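Case study.
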Amino acid sequence: MIRGVDQRADSLVRERRPAHFKLEQAVRPNILSLAPYRCARDDFQEGVLLDANENALGPSLSSGSEQPVPVDALELHRYPHPALHGLRESAASLRSMPDPHFVFIGVGSDEVIDLIQRCFARPGRGKILVCPPTYGMYKVSAAINDLEVVQVPLRFDGSFGLDVPAINAALAADPDIALVFLCSPGNPTGSLLPLDEVRQVLDNANFNGLVIVDEAYIDFALEEQSLGRKNVGTDISACSLVPDYANLIVSQTLSKSFGLAAIRCGLAFAQPATIQVLNNTKAPYSISTTTAYLAAQALAPPGIAKMRENVRQLVENRDTLIAELGRIPALGRVIGGNDANFVMVEVLDGPGGKPDSARAATVYLTMAQEFDLVVRDRSKEPGCDGCLRISIGTADENKQCITLLEKLLA
Ligand SMILES: Cc1ncc(COP(=O)(O)O)c(C=O)c1O
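After joint prediction, the assembly is written out as follows.
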């Protein structure tokens, strides 16, 4: 059985020739048994969408008719120009890389994750190490690439942090671990990982593989820092370590702070030899001309200014949302680091009670199905009992969310 086949469409097949051919036997067993990633949009597509950590304030591009995509000038009948509208140069300058050769452009971070696994881990033998609760695609890509997953859970003490001794012990014990995926700030934890802990993994002499730091949400943490609330005076992005560490890849995306999830543009920062391996392996012309054009606009000074303005507004909206969640008696703690554009809040079995995952699941479904307001149920994740993850919306969307939670939990 191939999972997820549309039965109606399949019934339209006229014949299944030749008789000896069985698709199930042709597919690699790990692909056949794959539980595909269920992205937020698979479940609900309409309504107030506070489920996918998108940027509720829109793209970091000039709006209105001032800046239409110049269809004629882009020469869309030609394959994309390798200069990609100067995207690598702009990304290198934004993240203080020594040179554009320290930058890889991917089809979203999700392609970067998959490509790294394809390049640096051997199917059927290699392993990756992840620290749950974490972003689900690391595991799904591992299943596709026939890689085993070793899990070293995050420590949980109100916030979430790396268990560095356990990670380093796992790496020492298993030479087949080829890649370590760290997420900072984490999804769904929202917790920034201190760089001295990341460095302890990079410096582990028992580990000959690569460390990937996924910084999809880093601009929200940088805003916290610039407000003087956290990590003042220290580097918080692992980009600062790239010029020093040959075993580090930092991945970022334009899908979150830049509000450009639709164009599918991911960035990876690493030393030039590592970047070259990724470039040698990716599909030709993988970044479309329209994506490169729009991404270059977003990474130009006015786009960056707009991104920072939107991030500032979202951080303000997040503070208001957290304060209002705190006033609903049947909700518990807002857990995690709150360093990103979402929060995780506990649904309790009653005022002052215990986190209740069954109730969280019911509330999530009722919100989506009956009231068209979609958050994400994360209650089954380790350390996240009873938790809903709420992406920060506009002030009005957040108000709708609070009103609805108050009503359903009354
Ligand atoms: C931690 C993390 N990494 C990567 C991604 C995917 O980013 P992209 O849209 O660039 O594929 C997400 C999306 O939710 C994420 O949360």
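Observations recorded in class. Residues 74-302 form a domain with the Aspartate Aminotransferase; domain 2 fold (CATH 3.40.640.10). The chain has 15 helices and 15 strands. We will return to this complex in the next lecture.
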